[in-house]
Design goal:
This protein is of the alpha+beta class and 230 residues long. Helix content is 19%, strand content 38%. The chain is built from five helices and eleven strands; from the N terminus they run ααααββββββαβββββ.
Length: 230
């Protein structure tokens, strides 16, 4: 599969995680060469997590979401499984290791590894490194939760308790307007009682090729991402 056919899947994966800037690129089909470079947020050394005391609703839903987002951005690693429906269905698994390593597995495309500026693609059982520094054009896929991404969140509400993936959680809903309305969605998020981190997100998009998305997070897996070839 050609690179120009594969890269939009990477961008779409990032869009599913909520980054409206990447969502715009995925919808318009812009090539990686036209994307802007972005600085990755350096995570703290070693995985961190909130405590059960710190994850309880405070009575201020916006503050609770900000607290969760800060804990999420501090994670050394995580795994996200994404299932989306719409014109462009998705069944994808993304793994992250701070500060800038990603592994993407997609049922409809070759596996991909991003290590800093370098991008590697698996093709018919063999890995190849893509020439250039394409990885620097793939924006940080966690940016939906930084301060810039959070400013588009409105109507944040605490709606009660539930269980997701067998884990007790506090549940919130919010509207994500997206920058200039791009990637606008209504979302529901389950925040784990034990660690204050997102367990599941369900998003329904207002427009674009991706109509709905469910993301399930795992922080317990021992994840290591290394260049598959030199």
């Amino acid at each position: 599969m050609k690179l120009e056919h594969i890269l939009p899947l990477v961008l779409l994966a990032a869009a599913a995680l909520g980054c409206s800037q990447i969502r715009e690129m995925a919808d318009t089909g812009d090539s990686a060469a036209n994307t802007a470079n972005a600085n990755s947020t350096d995570a703290a050394n070693g995985a961190t997590s909130g405590t059960s005391e710190g994850s309880a609703p405070s009575g201020n839903p916006n503050a609770d979401i900000n607290r969760m987002a800060d804990a999420f951005l501090a994670q050394r690693s995580f795994r996200a499984k994404m299932v989306g429906s719409g014109q462009t269905p998705m069944n994808m698994e993304l793994e992250f290791v701070a500060p800038d390593r990603f592994r993407i597995k997609n049922t409809n495309a070759p596996d991909m590894v991003i290590v800093g500026k370098n991008v590697y693609i698996e093709n018919e059982g063999r890995w190849q490194k893509i020439p250039g520094d394409l990885g620097s054009s793939v924006l940080d896929m966690r940016k939906a939760w930084d301060e810039e991404g959070r400013k588009w969140f409105t109507d944040v509400k605490y709606v009660g308790e539930d269980t997701a993936n067998g884990k007790p959680a506090y549940v919130y809903t919010y509207h994500n307007k997206g920058a200039e309305g791009v990637g606008e969605n209504d979302s529901k998020i389950w925040i784990g009682k034990s660690n204050g981190l997102p367990v599941r997100i369900e998003a329904n998009y207002k427009k674009g090729t991706l109509r709905s998305m469910t993301i399930d997070y795992d922080y317990d897996a021992d994840i290591s991402i290394e260049p598959p070839v030199k």
